[in-house]
Each structure stands twice: as structure tokens, then as C-alpha cells.
Amino acid sequence: MIKLTVSYPNGEGTTFDHDYYAASHVPLCNAVFSPVKTEVDKGIDGPNAAAVNFYFESMEAMQAAFGNPKMGDVMTDVANYTNIAPVMQVSEIVG
User: Fold this and answer.
1) Strand stretches in the chain, DSSP E
2) Is the pTM of this model over 0.70?
3) Which end is more exposed in the chain, N or C (fewer Cβ atoms within 10 Å of the end residue's Cβ)?
4) How far is CA 67 from CA 14, 41, 64, in A?
5) In sequence order, what are the beta bridge partners of 84?
């Protein structure tokens, strides 16, 4: 199992619209990526304003999701909810 985490670090002058993110952006990602499972985090205390975890059966499945022609729509939509540059982490679930 592969997990893609996209986090949004807090910082001075950063903005993040959690309502838009949960109601519009994450559903768009799910439609484009077709992950096995998705978890959305709203930061309360710590370095990130928000994060999302997308789970894929394999690295190939994640790479196929990134190759979807609608990936551009996902990237363009980021400006609708934040001015934070997303940070991505790919992990293998081992336990």
C-alpha cells in the first residue's frame, strides 16, 4: 500500500479555506485519482494548516493517477483555497 500525503505548512501570511478544501478540492482529487481511501486533516496544533492522505494499492496506481489528463485541473484548483505551496510525501505502508 502506498500513501501520498500532501501537507500545507503554516507560516506568516498564509491562508487556507478548510470548507472549500473539504467540499470541493478533495472530492475533485478523489475523482481524478480514484484512491482506495482518503483522510483529510485540519491542523489544530503543529506545523501544518492541513493535510490529506491518499492511499493507493501500488506505486503504479499512484503514478497512473498522476498521469490522468485532469491532473492540471487539480493543480489549478489549489489557488481557490490557499496561498501555501503544498508539500508532498510518498510513503510505503509497512505496518
Assistant:
1) 2-9, 37-42, 48-56, 87-92
2) yes
3) C
4) 29, 25, 5
5) none
